[in-house]
């Protein structure tokens, strides 16, 4: 069944960072547990509860930060289970407020990765997955009928193989389907007591039922559909990549989520799908429909969004929250009131009239401005960019000052497009100049976020020092995205003083290695930066950018205050990964969006030398084999100083033409001596031996990938075969090519129609006929000289070493010599006397 792409609905979705998850913390699965409550699970021990009526996420601690929860099942609103790798398996009976581990001693599993947990009722449920360290991966399906107190193995007697079950769904009857890897699923018709393997068109990670007989399953770029309760499956063309979540609200209405914020919607039980555009670039891993047209989805980097196909926009971030008495209290930010107001003010936002913008200050330097808390909350849909708010002070007399600093409290919402900004401008008596601009506290993940700082922002504004009619303007601008997203901004507690703001970067070092820059191991490790605040005003926040000479780059920040006249070490790069070959890597760090008085110290660089341990293959790579007569070029790393090859050369590369052991030595930096050895062998390529049956010539070896036959050294057309039928007399040879690309040419076979072959014809000049070929104990050389004579016989192995060099006397046209002591392989024979000099090759079995 093909996928019908209907006209796109103008649907936009926005992210919500209330869950406080980081850039690498992903929400894999989610279940609805009540009318407005959902629980999502993910890696780093993430378990969060969401209420879609007031848009708030709350953490529900379960397990440890090392747990990677992959699945969740809530048969009732209070009873639920979560599971994942490393025997991670927990149960709650109070809606997720607290969790109890179900140990491996109860499930009987060994180091299990419990990828699937599915409970039909509060007592009857299933788990499935694989076991590390168990033969064949230990794939399993287990069942409980007492709420997880005991478990019985119901794994199919045959058919699981290497297929790991990832998800499960049941129809109204006792028929269920467990989808798995390797294009396979498992089906039960007796409530999971027994299971039978069924084939699917693709590997599947998620499955959902739509009515009494229909099921839809997805994985990556595949949508598959069954209309007979999972007995047979057919592919449905997909319109998205990375599809991993699927859910149906009823018999006909369903949604699928995938990469780059993909959302697909169906209203005909999965026959056709409509793409729902969002603002996201992150992958959405799961979706739960809340009605026939609405849903909640979660995904990578802690993303969460609501979806309503009947609205022109969707949002989670609104002006009301589930816990207004304490506003928003999150781990990353605290709500310390810096205004000394009584009662203490909380950071939350309400709509205000735009006429309140442009408030004037009642006081000026050196005290605190009496600017009212300016809360700005605007819906920018159908408005233009310049409508965003600003607050401007009255004229300030800053005459007589030489250095000035500004600090203030601020909170605002940023859009993910990077166009949202706050700006501080100053009037210097003639022009307005920009003193500071920020696009928000970027966590390094590029995700829009609300900012609730617990420290003041602080900048140097000495550009206004000495000005008798200076002014300050604080502004907030949000883009007209026409998506109905609401923007908010608050600024308060503005202070001008004659204190200084001065930041500088002091040093870079590899964590655990102090300031040592030479001879670091080739392993991922933190790179730290030491930063100093030499001024007498604390600074918040501090954002840093970095790049490395091998093309890596990133940004980071510290969101705690760097106190005045203090210094601190910060992780600039978390687990910097050097190139596999190591070498000299220069890392550069700089201060971002932080004006200060020490611009010369805003940037710092340092070179680190990553050196391989002895015995590794970091320089030359793994041992390899080449074709006989072939070559292989070895390359020294570009940053290696003074390279020295085993032949005494110092070039950047070294080409070898035969088997042997080769080495390279050199130095990283000035003191980090490194070396590596590589062993090169020759691929054993048997020489094809032509045999004849009448007019049919053939070679018997099956190690060749292609052939080319020749007659009298002229290539025969259309002869890519192990055998040919010949009709003309002549000398026939065949060139055989192995799958590795090695070429080898057979000895000649002299064919004469109606004759007896080689021994009845005059041998072409220079050709030595050897038989039997291949040989086991002895071999005969056909000289072509019926009178016999004395011959010098030389045998050379494949690397050019003389194995035999002897004189033989013969009274006939042949010489027989012993080869039983030779090692298996290909050898060349040279037979010569004063009349002739012939060569040939044979294979020793």
From TrEMBL:
<feature type="domain" description="Photosynthesis system II assembly factor Ycf48/Hcf136-like">
    <location>
        <begin position="163"/>
        <end position="304"/>
    </location>
</feature>
<dbReference type="Pfam" id="PF18962">
    <property type="entry name" value="Por_Secre_tail"/>
</dbReference>
<dbReference type="GO" id="GO:0015979">
    <property type="term" value="P:photosynthesis"/>
</dbReference>
<keyword id="KW-0602">Photosynthesis</keyword>
<dbReference type="Pfam" id="PF14870">
    <property type="entry name" value="PSII_BNR"/>
</dbReference>
<dbReference type="InterPro" id="IPR028203">
    <property type="entry name" value="PSII_CF48-like_dom"/>
</dbReference>
<dbReference type="GO" id="GO:0009523">
    <property type="term" value="C:photosystem II"/>
</dbReference>
<dbReference type="InterPro" id="IPR015943">
    <property type="entry name" value="WD40/YVTN_repeat-like_dom_sf"/>
</dbReference>
<feature type="domain" description="Secretion system C-terminal sorting">
    <location>
        <begin position="770"/>
        <end position="840"/>
    </location>
</feature>
<protein>
    <submittedName>
        <fullName>Putative secreted protein (Por secretion system target)</fullName>
    </submittedName>
</protein>
<keyword id="KW-0604">Photosystem II</keyword>
<dbReference type="InterPro" id="IPR026444">
    <property type="entry name" value="Secre_tail"/>
</dbReference>
């Amino acid at each position: 069944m093909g996928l019908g792409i209907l006209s796109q609905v103008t649907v936009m979705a926005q992210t919500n960072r209330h869950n406080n998850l980081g850039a690498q913390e992903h929400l894999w699965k989610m279940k609805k547990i009540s009318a407005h409550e959902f629980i999502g699970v993910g890696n780093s021990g993430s378990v969060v509860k969401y209420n879609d009526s007031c848009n708030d996420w709350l953490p529900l601690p379960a397990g440890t930060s090392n747990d990677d929860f992959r699945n969740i099942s809530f048969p009732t609103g209070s009873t639920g289970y979560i599971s994942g790798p490393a025997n991670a398996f927990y149960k709650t009976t109070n809606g997720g407020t607290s969790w109890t581990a179900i140990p491996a001693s109860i499930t009987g599993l060994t180091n299990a990765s419990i990828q699937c947990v599915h409970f039909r009722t509060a007592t009857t449920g299933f788990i499935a997955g694989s076991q590390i360290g168990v033969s064949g991966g230990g794939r399993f399906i287990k069942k409980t009928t007492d709420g997880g107190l005991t478990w019985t193995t119901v794994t199919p007697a045959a058919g699981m193989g290497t297929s790991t079950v990832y998800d499960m769904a049941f129809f109204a009857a006792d028929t269920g389907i467990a989808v798995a890897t390797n294009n396979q699923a498992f089906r039960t018709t007796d409530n999971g007591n027994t299971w039978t393997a069924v084939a699917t068109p693709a590997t599947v990670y998620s499955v959902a039922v739509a009515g009494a007989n229909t099921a839809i399953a997805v994985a990556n770029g595949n949508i598959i559909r069954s209309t007979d309760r999972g007995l047979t499956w057919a592919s449905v063309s997909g319109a998205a990549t990375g599809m991993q979540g699927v859910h149906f609200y009823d018999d006909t209405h369903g949604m699928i989520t995938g990469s780059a914020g993909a959302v697909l919607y169906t209203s005909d039980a999965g026959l056709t799908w409509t793409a729902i555009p969002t603002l996201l670039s992150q992958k959405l891993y799961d979706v739960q429909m809340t009605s026939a047209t609405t849903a909640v989805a979660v995904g990578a980097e802690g993303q969460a969004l609501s979806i309503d196909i009947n609205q022109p926009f969707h949002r989670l971030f609104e002006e009301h929250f589930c816990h207004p008495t304490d506003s928003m209290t999150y781990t990353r930010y605290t709500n310390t009131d810096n205004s000394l107001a009584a009662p203490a003010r909380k950071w939350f936002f309400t709509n205000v009239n735009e006429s309140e913008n442009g408030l004037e200050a009642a006081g000026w330097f050196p005290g605190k401005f009496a600017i009212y808390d300016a809360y700005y909350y605007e819906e920018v849909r159908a408005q233009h960019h310049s409508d965003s708010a600003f607050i401007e002070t009255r004229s300030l007399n800053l005459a007589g000052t030489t250095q000035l600093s500004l600090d203030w409290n601020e909170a605002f919402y940023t859009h993910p497009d990077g166009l949202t900004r706050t700006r501080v401008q100053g009037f210097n008596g003639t022009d307005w100049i920009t003193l500071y601009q920020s696009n928000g506290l970027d966590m390094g993940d590029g995700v829009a976020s609300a900012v609730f700082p617990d420290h003041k922002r602080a900048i140097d504004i000495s550009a206004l020092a000495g000005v008798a009619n200076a002014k300050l303007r604080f502004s907030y601008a949000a883009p007209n995205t026409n998506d109905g997203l609401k923007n908010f901004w608050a600024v308060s507690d503005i202070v001008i003083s004659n204190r200084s703001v001065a930041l500088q970067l002091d040093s870079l070092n590899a964590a655990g290695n102090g300031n040592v820059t030479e001879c670091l191991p080739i392993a991922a490790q933190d790179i730290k930066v030491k930063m100093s605040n030499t001024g007498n005003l604390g600074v918040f926040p501090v954002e840093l950018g970095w790049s490395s000479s091998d093309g890596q780059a990133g940004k980071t920040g510290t969101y705690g205050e760097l106190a005045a006249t203090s210094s601190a070490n910060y992780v600039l790069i978390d687990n910097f990964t050097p190139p596999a070959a190591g070498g000299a890597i220069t890392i550069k760090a700089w201060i971002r969006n932080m004006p200060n008085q020490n611009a010369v110290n805003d940037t710092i660089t340092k070179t680190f030398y990553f050196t391989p341990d002895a015995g590794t293959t970091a320089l030359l790579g793994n041992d390899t084999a080449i074709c006989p007569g072939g070559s292989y070029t070895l390359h020294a790393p570009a940053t290696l100083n003074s390279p020295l090859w085993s032949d005494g050369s110092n070039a950047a590369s070294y080409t070898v033409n035969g088997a042997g052991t080769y080495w390279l030595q050199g130095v990283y930096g000035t003191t980090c001596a490194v070396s590596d050895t590589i062993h090169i062998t020759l691929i054993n390529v048997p020489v094809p031996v032509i045999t004849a049956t009448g007019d049919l010539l053939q070679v018997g070896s099956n190690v060749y990938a292609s052939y080319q036959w020749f007659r009298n050294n002229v290539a025969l057309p259309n002869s890519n075969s192990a055998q040919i039928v010949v009709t003309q007399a002549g000398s026939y040879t065949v060139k055989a090519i192995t799958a590795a690309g090695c070429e080898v040419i057979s000895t000649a076979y002299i064919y004469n129609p109606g004759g007896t072959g080689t021994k009845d014809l005059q041998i072409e000049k220079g050709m030595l006929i050897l038989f039997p070929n291949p040989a086991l104990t002895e071999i005969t050389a056909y000289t072509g000289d019926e009178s016999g004579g004395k011959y010098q016989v030389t045998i050379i192995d494949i690397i050019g070493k003389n194995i035999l060099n002897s004189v033989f006397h013969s009274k006939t046209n042949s010489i027989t010599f012993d080869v039983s002591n030779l090692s298996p392989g290909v050898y060349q024979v040279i037979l010569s006397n004063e009349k002739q000099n012939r060569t040939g090759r044979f294979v020793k079995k």
